[in-house]
Each structure stands twice: as C-alpha cells, then as structure tokens.
Amino acid sequence: MTDVTGATAEVLHTLFHSDQGGHEQVVLCQDRASGLKAVIAIHSTALGPALGGTRFYPYASEAEAVADALNLARGMSYKNAMAGLGHGGGKAVIIGDPERVKTEELLLAYGRFVASLGGRYVTACDVGTYVADMDVVARECRWTTGRSPENGGAGDSSVLTAFGVYQGMRASAEHLWGDPSLRGRKVGVAGVGKVGHHLVGHLLEEGAEVVITDVREESVRRILERHPSVTAVADTDALIRTEGLDVYAPCALGGVLNDDTVPVLTARVVCGAANNQLAHPGVEKDLADRGILYAPDYVVNAGGVIQVADELHGFDFERCKAKASKIYDTTLAIFARAKTDGIPPAAAADRIAEQRMADARGR
C-alpha cells in the first residue's frame, strides 16, 4: 500500500519503478505551517514493526529523497534481520538543511506523522538528527527511540555502532590475515563525526595506524588535537589512494564504492559504518575480482540499531554490548558462506537475511 499526497510525476515514477522494490508502504508527509516535507518508507514488517532512523538532508529533489528512503528502508530490513532483532525495516527522510530549517515545530509535526502509523514504524536518529531531536519527536509519538537518558532513553547510539564496526573489522582481519588483531595495520577512516571518532579511538587503543579525512574541518581538528599520532589527508580520493592502506572504513554517506573508486582503492579490506556503500549492483563483484574483502555495511554497523531496539524494552548497555560483540561471529559466518557458495560477501549476507524474512512470513 502506498499513500501519496500531492506527489509529482517524477516522485510517482520513483515509487512504482524503483529497482529496490517490495516496499509495504510509503508515506509522503507535508505540514505547511512548519515547512515539513518528509518521506517514511516501510520495507518489511515480516519480523516485527519496522525500525529505522530519520535522516535530515537537503535533497536536490523530492524524487531523490524518495529514492533514498526506499533504499535505506530496504537496507534496514536486512540489517535488522542479520542482527537477530524482532523488527522489520523502515526509514524516514526529512527534506531540507537541518542547520537552517530544523525547528521544534517541524519535529513535532514529523512526530505526529510517525504516530499516525500506529506503531508500524519506530523512528530513531540518523544523519542530521540527534538524541535531542528524538526527545522532541517523542512528545508527539511514543514509537520513538534513541532518546536521552533524562527522557527514558539510551542516549547516543554511535558508541555501539562504532564498536560493532570495530568487531567487523577484527573479523575481516581474522579471515584475511589469520589474526583478528589490528595492531600495526594502517586504517583509513573517511568521516570522523558521530561514529567515526569513536572508531578511531578503538583502533588507536589496539595499536593501529590511523589516517582520516572529513568534509568538516572542525571534525578533523578535534581528532588531531585529541590524538596527535593520527594523520589527516585532504579528501576521500586521497585517502583511498593512500600507500600501504590495509583497511578502508567509510563512515559518512553511502555510494562511496563505485566505478571510479574501486579501481584505485589500495586497501585489502573495506569495513565501515556508512549505509549503502555499494553505489550499484555489481560493485561487490568488482571488489571481489580485485581481491578486496568487503564486510557488508548493514551487518557491521548494526550496533546502533541493536541499542535503539533494546531501548524499547528497558535499556541495558552491557546486554547491548554483548549482542553487538556477536557482529564478529556474524561477519565470519558471512565470509564462510560466501566462500562455500562462491559468491561475494554482500550476496551471502543478502541470502541469509532474505531467508530469515521468508521464514518469518511463512510462520
């Protein structure tokens, strides 16, 4: 079922001809008083209510926003399935520059739209939204997680997101080099914001050599001031070409593994927090053909969703951390399945997730 109000022909085409397909519901939200324009996409509720964050981003068009919501929602279905959660996949995007148009009134209006879905979709933080924003949304919607401890929530989920990526990276090292230690390995982190700066901390504690980049100069400066041993390069292009790079960790926006970047990537492993790192189908094979081990993004970055899901039932950090630590085992299992089936790890992860959703539908 798709709810469409005032959609342009371009948006309609995106909804009904998306190559992602299979979504249960897409809602276009508009509140003229606050200026809210948002898209809520529910991909699957086979495993339970759809759970996924709210991205606040200045999309170039409504169709681009719809396409991103569809893609992200599908990714959440697979992520939640692989994390062993009782949730399906959904995602919301709010159109606009959060630095300019985000207001309390707009967030409250968004909360009312989420609430109108009656629990089919549970929202949380994503790019451009924060714990304080979820506190506001929760005033209008009880199906909100990722809230502050003061308001009954678990707080910042980026801590466990980074921890999960770190576990996926250790599993990648074990699979490729026979040792999970990252000591002495050169790791390039693209994006040192909410998740990336925590990941840098884990890597340095283990004795890795870390190279970073970020479009925000203040984010780079913060890392360099706190960790003088870290090296910074100008941009992502410089990072992926860095000589002697062992691991590349994309921790910003998606689509970074594409026809331009894969041929020049020097790292032997790609393992990062960014969602939807593969720009299009076929990139996973290009990585495999070059002998680059890809740890599927929605598997290794599941620490955050593990935390926000746990918040719905009474948050316990140690319980969540123990569950996030299992990302190490899950990642190794995916690599083993990929070897057995003779397919790239991304395809192996998809097969496992799809089977879990299909089994749930058949119950």
From TrEMBL:
It holds the Pfam family ELFV_dehydrog_N. It comes from Streptomyces poonensis. Pathway: Amino-acid degradation; L-valine degradation. SUPFAM superfamilies: Aminoacid dehydrogenase-like, N-terminal domain (SSF53223), NAD(P)-binding Rossmann-fold domains (SSF51735). Residues 155-362 form the Glutamate/phenylalanine/leucine/valine/L-tryptophan dehydrogenase C-terminal domain. Its main location: cytoplasm. SMART domains: ELFV_dehydrog. This is Valine dehydrogenase.
